[in-house]
Design goal:
152 residues; mainly alpha
Length: 152
């Protein structure tokens, strides 16, 4: 899966889960069906939000985006549906072009400890996916320990 496709899948999934969360809030507050729609949609949205943020950072590092662009990519998940225009902008501006950087180039960043670790992780996809999944679960668990946002 290319960086472009991975990013696009998570950007669209993040927007879809915004729709689920908004629908859950309508069911709770307008239809009065109780808390369960917000709990379910909020949990799904929260996990996809975290997964999107991790993916945006991973793709941003791979594509050598400047740090403010990576931060902007993550911040777009806070605004409903903003990941879609960011995805279109990133694609049109060439920021999603290219494959995964599994080989060192002449770029000095490829010869740092982080560059070597990054390429190693890209070359060991099960380790990368497992590590990122654990990171997402740890973040989600930490946020659940803090407690859900109070909407009412």
């Amino acid at each position: 899966m290319s960086p472009r496709l991975l990013y696009r899948v998570l950007a669209v999934a993040e927007a879809i889960t915004w729709t689920l969360l908004i629908a859950g809030m309508l069911l709770k507050y307008a239809a009065g069906v109780g808390d369960w729609p917000v709990v379910v949609a909020g949990s799904v949205h929260g996990f996809v939000f975290i997964s999107y943020a991790i993916t945006a950072a991973l793709v941003g590092v791979n594509q050598r985006w400047r740090f403010p662009v990576i931060v902007l990519a993550v911040v777009t998940a806070i605004v409903p549906y903003a990941t879609i225009p960011f995805d279109l902008w990133a694609d049109r501006s060439g920021r999603l072009d290219g494959a995964w950087r599994t080989q060192a180039t002449d770029d000095p960043r490829d010869h740092t400890w982080f560059g070597r670790l990054f390429r190693w992780m890209l070359g060991h996809v099960p380790v990368l996916v497992g590590s990122l999944a654990v990171l997402a679960v740890v973040i989600m668990a930490g946020l659940l320990l803090i407690g859900p946002p109070k909407l009412s």
